[in-house]
Amino acid sequence: MRRRDDGAIAVIAAVAFLPLCLMVAIVVDGGRVWVGRTRLQNSVEAAAISAAQNWMTRGQACSPTALGVMTTDGSAPASVQCSVTGSNTSGVTWVTATEKIGLTFASLVGRSSSSVTATTGVRIGAAGSAVGVWPFGLCSQVKAVSDWIASGMKTTASTVIRFEDQTQTCSGSVSGNWGVLDFNGGSSSNAETKDWVDNGYLGVVKVGDWIIGSPGAPSSSLDIQSIVGKSVIMPMYSSPQLSGSNVEYRIVGFAKARVDAVQFTGGASSRSIRITLQTGTITGSSSSLGGTNFGLVGVGVCSLDGTGSCT
After folding, report:
1. 3-class SS letters over 164-203
2. What is the CA radius of gyration of the chain?
3. I need a labelling partner for 248 at 20 to 30 A (CA). Which of 23, 181, 223, 241 fits?
């Protein structure tokens, strides 16, 4: 007898329909959970950074305003926990949130949602990068800096620091207390340096960068009286090497300083700047952590959903 296979495809389709529907359900609901969890993680990260910055600048830890940014990306967490350890100049902010993600197909078998959790830790510490940096780098080992750190960064003493000092090599091979830095490796003209004096260098300077510069006193034609009375972000260097206009300075940190007076006329050995070191904060996309703490602090993510250490 001849066999007929009419309807065989229908049988196969009927048999495959259930696992196919199951696969679609897993993909759709799994995708919803993945998207919801990613959105929650991004929101928690933004909230942790906002909370840390608010704590750092205003001394208010875990304020509702700072945590409120969590809902701007569409997240609707069922619970939020925020905690801090340490101080607002050297501490960690932790934010953890849990959200229920609605399920489409799983609800047919009695499961209407899936719970997801995200955690972020943000550390406050020495600024590791900055924009708007002043072109005069200061040796990190001058006595004024040592006294500032020894005081717990609380002294308000104003100090005169001469540009030239044959006894100060700052752990390198080049003498002097200061270096006039050429951030972009260009012609380093007075006009360009003057622009950086008034407005700061617009690029990002990082701890660990080697920057070309010139030791000794800057040109007496460089008038910086307009900056007197204002505060600047000062790059701190160590271990200068090579010589002449090709000296390289290694950036080890950043300090905030008020410029109280300048003396750019007269002999090179008498030219100087009077400064008062201050504490301060750096916020924004350029902010990162690293280097020696000279009183200027920023924030950086140290743990993202269990990855990374904040100790």
Report:
1. CCCCCCCCCCCCCCEEEECCCCCCCCHHHHHHHHHHCECC
2. 29
3. 223
Please give the helix or strand (H or E) that residue 225 lies within, else none: none
Q: Which residues pair with 301 in a beta bridge?
A: 122
For the record, the structure tokens of 224 come out as 């910086």
Residue 108 has pLDDT above 60, yes or no: no
Those residues whose C-beta lies under 8 Å from the C-beta of residue 15, and which sit 6 or more positions away, are none
Report residue 143: phi and psi, to 5°: -60, -35
Task: Tell me if the pTM is above 0.70.
Answer: yes
Residue 293 and residue 283: Cα distance in Å, rounded? 16
Could you give the C-alpha distances from 81 to 39, 60, 62, 71, 93, in angstroms and in order? 17, 15, 9, 14, 11
Helix ranges restricted to H, the chain: 8-58, 64-67, 143-150, 190-199
Read off the pLDDT of residues 215-266 as tens digits, 9 standing for 90 and up: 877 877 777 888 899 999 999 999 999 877 789 999 999 999 999 999 988 8
Tokens of 198: 């008034």
Phi, psi of 18 (to 5 degrees): -65, -50
For residue 105, give every residue at least 6 positions away whose Cβ sits within 8 Å of its Cβ, in sequence order, or none: 21, 24, 25, 28, 29
Query: What's at 24, amino acid-wise?
Result: V
Pairing of strands 296-304, 113-126: antiparallel
* pLDDT, position 15: 59
Instruction: Determine contact, residues 196/250, Cβ cutoff 8 Å.
Output: no
Domain spans of the chain, in order of start: 8-127, 129-281
Instruction: Give residue-wise pLDDT tens across range 160-212.
Output: 999 988 889 999 999 999 999 999 887 657 888 888 999 999 999 999 999 99
Spatial neighbors of 184 by CB under 8 A, at least 6 apart, are: 201, 203
